[in-house]
Every structure is written in C-alpha cells, then in structure tokens.
Automatic annotation (TrEMBL):
GO CC terms, sorted: cytoplasm
Gene Ontology MF annotations: translation elongation factor activity
Entry keywords, A to Z: Cytoplasm, Elongation factor, Protein biosynthesis
Gene: tsf
Domain of life: Bacteria
Name of the protein in its database record: Elongation factor Ts
Principal location class: cytoplasm
Length: 276
C-alpha cells in the first residue's frame, strides 16, 4: 500500500507545480518521502510544468515535410519569440515533426499520445522541454494530407524568426511547380476552405443578412437588393474560397482556372499561421 496520503500529494503538487500523475509516481518511487519525491521530480525535469499551464503561447513555429504523396504540418508554440528562434526549440520542433511523420498522426492528440523510441510520449517530451527551457511549450495543431502530389511551403514573416506560416497542398495532375505556386498563394491570401460548398449554410445566411442590412442602410433601391446581396455574398466567397480567389501571380484568373490550365486539380490544403 502506498506510504502517503492525499494531503501528501496536495503538498507536493503545491511545492513543485508538477502534475497529479507525476507526483503520484514520484511518491511511489520515494516510498512517500517528500524530499526524495521532490528530487525525483526535479531530476525528471517536471518541476514547474503545471504552473506554466495557464500561460499564453503566442509564439513558435510551423514545420512541414512532404514527400511520396504525403504531407505533414505541425504547429509548435512557446511563449516568447526569444525561445522560438532558439536552437533547442527548433530542434524540438524538428523532433516533433519527425514523430508526426513516422506515426502518421493527423491531429495533435494522437501525436501527443504517441511513443518515441526512448519510451517517452511526445507529451512527456514537451513537459521535459517545458521545464528545461522554462516556458510553456505545446503542439497546437497537426495536419496530414495525402494525394498524387503533395507539396509544402513555409514562409517567414520575419528574417529573425523561424517559419510562421506553413501550407500543404494536395493536387492531382499538373506538376510540382503549379502546386508550389498555389501553396505560396495560400500562404499570402489565407483562404479558409477549398470550395464554396464547404462553407456552412449558417455562415452564408449570415453574410446575406449583413449584406442586405448594409445595402438598406446605404439607401439602395429595394428592387436592386437581391442583385446587390448576391454580389456581396459572392465577394465573401472570393475572399475565403481558395478556388474562387484571384490568383496571386495572375489576378485576372482564379486559382481554379490556373490549376485547370496546368492540367491540375486541387484536392485539399492546410494552412497554419503561428498563434492564429
């Protein structure tokens, strides 16, 4: 039977800031000895992890890998840009990306629960880094795409920082050049969906209501309202739907038209911007 009480667990959590499970493991290993359990937590790099859980992670980086028709994109966050551009954090993000690729993780929960070669989970790896680096570090998002062709594109918003925007694009037909051009377009113009059918009906209806109310406020003729509303809703689609956006390199053509002329079909995309 464990040689400690609930009060001992509470006291150790309060004194070290470590999580419940880690505290229990340390007390088990120390046979209830508070001082020894504290040392165990310190050695394992877990001291202070819980204290940082409420902090804001608005900095970090995105990392990506695409080859063989599979692309993986991860967003790893920290608290400050100082840490974000540090070698330790960048190396950690590379390790996280490699694990996401190896395990075919498609979301953050699956990646965090996956086990590394040394027996640690990715969550435990981040906890250790959290304690070592001294900031809250988390994997915010993970995306995985498959297709005949998948390319990745990373963009730096500042030369002093690692990539802050990452894109994956899956295409069928065409070549890597058009796929990469579309990826660069996505990085710059931040579409939210591939086709207008992916915009939920409630959002479209709300856009119609706003467009109609705005037109009435502007004093537009009642007879002209349907056409005005339709035009403004289409404007919303052009802003948010990838295939309907004017292409960055040729604004007179849509992304869909550029892809078609290149013999390509855009099947899917993912875009992460740090903290967004």
């Amino acid at each position: 039977m464990a040689n400690y009480t609930a009060a001992d667990i509470k006291a150790l959590r309060e004194s070290t800031g470590a999580g419940m499970l880690d505290v229990k493991k340390a007390l088990d290993e120390a046979d209830g000895d508070q001082a020894k359990a504290t040392e165990i937590l310190r050695v394992k790099g877990l001291k202070g992890v819980t204290k940082r859980e409420g902090r804001t992670t608005s900095n970090g980086l995105v990392a990506a890998k695409a080859e063989g028709g599979v692309g993986t994109l991860v967003e790893v966050l920290c608290e400050t840009d100082f840490v974000a551009k540090g070698e330790k954090f960048i190396a950690l993000a590379d390790q996280v990306l490699a694990q996401a690729v190896d395990t075919q993780a498609a979301d953050a929960d699956a990646l965090l629960a996956s086990t590394l070669a040394d027996g640690k989970t990715v969550k435990e790896l981040l906890d250790d880094a959290n304690a070592t680096i001294g900031e809250k570090i988390e994997v915010k998002r993970v995306a995985r795409l498959e297709g005949p062709t998948v390319v990745s594109y990373l963009h730096k918003t500042s030369p002093d920082l690692p990539a802050q925007i990452g894109v994956l694009v899956a295409t069928e037909g065409g070549d890597d050049t058009v796929a990469r051009d579309i990826a660069m377009h996505i990085a710059a113009f931040s579409p939210t969906v591939l086709t207008r059918e992916e915009v939920d009906a409630e959002t479209v209806e709300n856009e119609r209501r706003v467009a109609e109310a705005t037109a009435k406020e502007e004093g537009k003729p009642e007879a002209a309202l349907p056409k005005i509303v339709e035009g403004r809703v289409n404007g919303y689609f052009k802003d948010n739907v990838l295939l309907e956006q004017p292409f960055a390199k040729e604004p007179k053509k849509t992304v869909a038209k550029v892809a078609e002329e290149a013999g390509a079909t855009v099947k899917a995309f993912a875009r992460f911007r740090v903290g967004a």
